[in-house]
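hey can u run this one w/ beta-D-ribofuranose bound, need the structure tokens asap thx
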Amino acid sequence: MEKIILDCDPGHDDAIAILLAAGNPKIDLLGITTVSGNHNVENTTRNALSVCTAYGIKVPVAKGSPGPLIIDQVLAVEIHGDTGLDGPVLPTASFELDKRHAVDFIIDTVMAHEPKTITLVPVGPYTNIALAVRKDPRIVERVKGVVAMGGSYTRGNITPAAEFNIYADPEAADVVFRADWDVTMVGLDLTHQALATPDLQDRVRAVGGPIAKFILDIWEFIATTHRGLLQIEYPAVHDACCVAAMIDPTVFTTEKTDIRVELAGRWTKGMTVCNFEKMGGRHHFGGTASEQIDFRHTVAIKLDHPKFCDLVVDALERLTRGKGDP
Ligand code: BDR
Ligand code: CA
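ok here u go:
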């Protein structure tokens, strides 16, 4: 089983990531931590608790950072609506938050488990993860790795250059990509292949029941904002791609690269600049020795869409008939 902590800002696709993690027997979801991103942390936390309440997901939920490290808060209201999860109707949360701040939950959990057994899966801005690194740097060596939704090597979605999770807290992303741990960047290049196509929507509809309805309601809402603002034909299920890779690493191909976060560019702030190993190491980042390349990052390239759809439908079926059923 893969032990993960899902750090998220639900968020429509975040909610599907939660369901995929809770519904697949290969994932041991140790906890959900929340962060400000798609909406403020009050709303993203309430949404996480509501999703868990609605679908019987019994894991600790710890509330995290109310805003980015340095810059002013950027929310994605135009994509996710005024609640952060507009569209589907969710119940009021009926269980309590973990008493700890998300940063302490992450540190405590990582340090309490065997080395190299926990993967951090941030799918919102990386504020909590960066603060955890700063507060207790021992976690960098202790975790198995980080599989993070964010960034891109081709295009942005909030500016021409920057993807939202990085743009919303670029300094936090810089901490995460500079730390000496294994990071897999699951960026827009990959997640724009993870579309809720009519075929996937039909398969979810065929499962039936409240969870299928919830997912279809998510896609109905997000289809409008994605089509209008981002010109994507069908809803992109960004965040679930990271969980899918934890279940089955063959769900996408990867390449080795070296990633830097642009912190100063007038037009490019929040861009993830990728130097691919396959370019033969011809480029370097200039500057001091610490800027030199080592190709220790991994970047997701090509999604196996049928496999991804199978994982989503499988988790939905398991959750619908009760986890643990054969
Ligand atoms: C990312 O931004 C958010 O709106 C989504 O939840 C996803 O994590 C995509 O750019
Ligand atoms: Ca997210």
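Residues 11, 13-14, 38, 76, 79, 123-124, 149, 157, 163-165, 238-239 surround beta-D-ribofuranose (ligand 1) (CB under 6 Å). anyway lmk if its weird
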